[in-house]
């Protein structure tokens, strides 16, 4: 059986310790961007004078999504 070089072995061990980390981080980034776009749109609707009874809860939800995704991204940071 051929020996693995140390760099490849370390990369494989990191993948075993946290499988699909790159995929999860990609999804977090995409969902955060989606929430930011939604928040921007609802902010513009609020500025334009649409009903605040429906606009503000939706804006708060989008901001919450962005905050959640940022929190999850921070949890994914490697411990140093």
What is the approximate shape?
rod-shaped
The amount of helix comes to over 70%
Classification by helices and strands: mainly alpha
Cα Rg: 20 Å
* Separation, N- and C-terminal Cα atoms: 33 Å
Report the count of strand segments: 0
Mean pLDDT across residues: 90
Please report the number of helical segments: 3
Order of helices and strands: HHH
How much strand content do the residues show? Answer: under 5%
Total domains: 1
Spans where pLDDT lies below 50 across 5 or more residues: none
| Major sheet characteristics | none
Layout of secondary structure:
Blueprint: H1 6-17, H2 21-48, H3 52-75
Helix pairs in contact: 2-3
Polypeptide structure, described:
The protein has one domain (20-75). The model has no long low-confidence stretch (mean pLDDT 90). It is mostly helical. Helix 2 (21-48) packs antiparallel against helix 3. Helices cover 80% and strands 0% of the residues.
Short description:
This is DUF3493 domain-containing protein. The chain is mostly helical. It contains three helices and no strands.
Describe this protein with a few key phrases:
3 helices; rod-shaped; membrane; transmembrane; transmembrane helix; DUF3493 domain-containing protein
């Amino acid at each position: 059986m051929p020996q693995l070089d140390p760099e490849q072995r370390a990369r494989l061990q990191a993948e075993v310790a946290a499988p699909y980390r790159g995929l999860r981080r990609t999804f977090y980034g995409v969902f955060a961007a989606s929430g930011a776009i939604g928040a921007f749109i609802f902010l513009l609707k609020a500025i334009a004078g649409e009903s605040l009874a429906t606009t503000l809860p939706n804006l708060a939800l989008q901001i919450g999504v962005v905050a959640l995704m940022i929190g999850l991204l921070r949890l994914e940071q490697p411990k140093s």
